[in-house]
Amino acid sequence: MAGEKKEVKIFDSDDDLVEGIAKHTTDLSRKFSIQRGAFTVVLSGGYLIEKLRKLVEPPYVGEVDWAKWHIFWVDERVVKKDDPESNYMLAKNGFLSKVPIPEDQIYAINDSLDAEHAAEDYESRLKELVERGVVEISPQTKFPRFDLMLLGMGHDGHLASLFPHHPLLSEKNRWVTFIKNSPKPPPVRITFTFPVIDASAYIFMVVAGSAEVDAVKKALDNNSSNDLLPVQMVKLENGEFIWFLDKLAALKL
Ligand SMILES: O=C(O)[C@H](O)[C@@H](O)[C@H](O)[C@H](O)COP(=O)(O)O
């Protein structure tokens, strides 16, 4: 079935939200590990990582076949891997160090390159993984199709490092590109482009607390506007976009 399925899940408490993310991620891990012998998971930075805290605890931690996981970043700051600003470091400390995913299935950016070359390098490594059959390819668009993107959204409606009104919003060819003037610091980053995000099988968009309440309202309002938030520009070709919200983030819905 082609097209996009949208769903909004609202949880009463932070613990319920975190439990919901753990449960649904475990279900998808099982599905893809069995179906294709691999589970490709794309992470953002931000507080998303902290919301994975129940996935690394029983019962979920024991139900997941971690050897099948392959980890990617939807965006990364161009800093050294041990820099406190690194999304890799954030994920390593908060999530990856707690589960037995093989080291060579964790695809951090090459932190010895500048932004332009780091983006090119990441794209060519993705191409190799497509050739090896680890990452699927969209039969329609020929962009890589990741099994699950676990993402956060900024209060300005950005996702990945795709910010409002930025020229990168209209990138149609590259898989991975770079930005040197990100309005959210640090300014230099690499990011997946919309065609890659749009090819995903599943996106879980995790938003908690009140900081993004207006962006959540705008994103989920049916009134179409000419001034779309980046998150509203996602158009999954054949996938499910599921919002995981707590009560505070959903307050204005
Ligand atoms: O490198 C980054 O800054 C992130 O990957 C970014 O895309 C993040 O996911 C959103 O900005 C939400 O961030 P918060 O969770 O901090 O609101």
UniProtKB/TrEMBL annotation:
<comment type="similarity">
    <text>Belongs to the glucosamine/galactosamine-6-phosphate isomerase family. 6-phosphogluconolactonase subfamily.</text>
</comment>
<dbReference type="InterPro" id="IPR039104">
    <property type="entry name" value="6PGL"/>
</dbReference>
<protein>
    <recommendedName>
        <fullName>Probable 6-phosphogluconolactonase</fullName>
        <ecNumber>3.1.1.31</ecNumber>
    </recommendedName>
</protein>
<dbReference type="InterPro" id="IPR037171">
    <property type="entry name" value="NagB/RpiA_transferase-like"/>
</dbReference>
<dbReference type="GO" id="GO:0017057">
    <property type="term" value="F:6-phosphogluconolactonase activity"/>
</dbReference>
<dbReference type="Pfam" id="PF01182">
    <property type="entry name" value="Glucosamine_iso"/>
</dbReference>
<comment type="pathway">
    <text>Carbohydrate degradation; pentose phosphate pathway; D-ribulose 5-phosphate from D-glucose 6-phosphate (oxidative stage): step 2/3.</text>
</comment>
<dbReference type="GO" id="GO:0006098">
    <property type="term" value="P:pentose-phosphate shunt"/>
</dbReference>
<feature type="domain" description="Glucosamine/galactosamine-6-phosphate isomerase">
    <location>
        <begin position="13"/>
        <end position="243"/>
    </location>
</feature>
<dbReference type="GO" id="GO:0005975">
    <property type="term" value="P:carbohydrate metabolic process"/>
</dbReference>
<dbReference type="InterPro" id="IPR006148">
    <property type="entry name" value="Glc/Gal-6P_isomerase"/>
</dbReference>
<keyword id="KW-0378">Hydrolase</keyword>
<dbReference type="InterPro" id="IPR005900">
    <property type="entry name" value="6-phosphogluconolactonase_DevB"/>
</dbReference>
